[in-house]
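Hi R.,

As promised, here are both runs. First protein below:
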Amino acid sequence: MQERETELASSPRERGSADPIPSGHHILAMFSPRRRGP
């Protein structure tokens, strides 16, 4: 089971698809707390 996860993460297609997702999430998460804070 772990071997399959490594293969998916190694895949270039999965990496490119997951690249923009976390990038945008990180920006939103940084702006969300900053706007909610003082």
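And here is the second one, sequence first, then its structure tokens:
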Amino acid sequence: MSWLGKQIEELNTPYYREKLAWGVPSGYILTIGLAVLALLFGHVGLLENVWSMVLILAPIKLFTNTLMWWSLRKDRFVLSVAVLNQTADVGLITGMIYFTGGPTSPVISVYYVVLALIAMLTNVGATILTGALMLVAYSTMLVLIHSGVLKFYPTFLQTVYEEGEFTWFFVVIDILKVGFLLAIMVVASSAILKKVQEQQEALQLKNRELEEANQLKSQFVANITHELRTPIHGVLGLTEMLDDEIYGSVNQRQKKALDGIKTSAEGLLHMVDDLLSLERVNSGHLSMRISVVPLQKLIEELMAFGLGIRGKRDISIEAHCPPSLVLMATDKSLLHHILTNLLANALKFTPDGGRVVIRVEREGTFAKISVSDTGIGIPEEKIHTIWEPFRQIDGTASRSYGGAGLGLAVVARLAKLLKADVSVASKVGVGTTFCVTLDGCTVSD
């Protein structure tokens, strides 16, 4: 569908239907006002063919306006009737322009008033189409007058100026004409702006309610994660004690079961930590503690973590760090959390027989820490979604890989807090590389 088609189809949404409803009273005001002025000017002999305007143009517009009201109320044929009603608007105004002087008519300014109202009530596409329809209708009228198909009616003000009869009567008439145009604009725009103000106040109230609900949710998540950490640590501690045979000897089958319990508990603890970190970052309660961090030692800790969660799976983990001791002025806890999430992610999506590589490189004062894997890879069209909370490449219940979709969302937010840059390069079936780049690197031999 083209851009213009999408713009028109957009008017079918509930948001624009409510705004279209405000065009109904303004249509009645415009039609009745123009009819009253035509009768007034006709009564004093200033206009010809008054009844053509009052008995033909005005009833057609009143009919389409009423049809618009019915369509909105019944929620039927709204878009089609809106187009018909707008065409009637243009026809009414163009007819009034024709009978009041054509190119010299003072009613031409009604075009601009109506177009401004349409811009307020609809969208860019509808405004452009209406403006184009006005131009076509006006141009057609001028061509027909010039070719003699339509009679030219000079405006009464033009006649007055040429005959030198600029009396107080005509001053009053002209003031009434301008006042009418201004009144239409003021009344219609005031009603629309009042409605907009009411909607803004309702939106502000809703925003306050959402903020309060978000605060309650954050507090709940913080409380529940703290409550979950205690029993998980208890499970891990008890597992370690059983594995150390404090309560008696353990055979190989039992040790394998304990390893499974430990791996599951550690995975659950990692997810709880991610959820807690995400809420702390979102609520602004996560502060940084800058210190000098030896990256080589950090990588050693990262390797130990990776070997622990890898377990007995057939995945090789390698680390490459400069021989010189690279020091980093950063928050060790946050950087460690970022890297463990990236490593856990790499191990989760790398099949047995695969390879995960951690690499540290220095470029001036910048340190680049990359985590590469030979896993399943990420489709190019889904890379932009991986940083969103609870989003996974495969979000179905039958997916092959577990997790809550928090790890990379936490990485993105913690990296922003550290003013670090995180990039990703991936190819489906080949693997993925995440790279964290930080400033503040020094070297100590």
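A quick note on the second one: The longest strand covers residues 355-363. Let me know what you think.

Best,
J.
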